[in-house]
Amino acid sequence: MGLAAGCRANMENFDFDVKVVVDSYKLTIVSGNGTLKEYPQSSNSVDGGLREALKKVKKGERVFIEDIMVTMPDRSKRKLNPITLKVV
Question: What are the percentages of helix, strand and coil residues in the chain, rounded to 5?
């Protein structure tokens, strides 16, 4: 499985192309035994610790991407809704 180099936000259903920049986010991995491990990121990148943790995620575990802060084209800041993923 290949890992992404970072986190990005795509704005859909607009009449024009809207480019936003992810400023920060928190990724939480819930292991099979229910243990939570949080990885706050202060940019759109995936740092070494998070990259290694993502390589170890197993089938059935859940990944939450929360506290997603973006900069809009008008330079305003917005918090996006969280995303929940289940590894299959």
Answer: 10, 45, 50
d(CA 30, CA 66): 13
> Are the C-beta atoms of 86 and 62 separated by less than 8 Å?
yes
**What DSSP state is assigned to residue 81?**
P
Tokens of 4: 């992404």
Tell me the pLDDT tens digit for each residue of 10-69.
Answer: 777 777 778 889 999 999 999 888 889 999 999 998 987 899 999 999 999 999 999 999
- Give the span between the Cα atoms of 19 and 52, in whole angstroms: 29
> Would you state the structure tokens that stand for residue 84, as one six-digit string?
């929940």
Structure tokens of 25?
């986010």
Query: Which pLDDT does position 34 carry in this prediction?
Result: 86
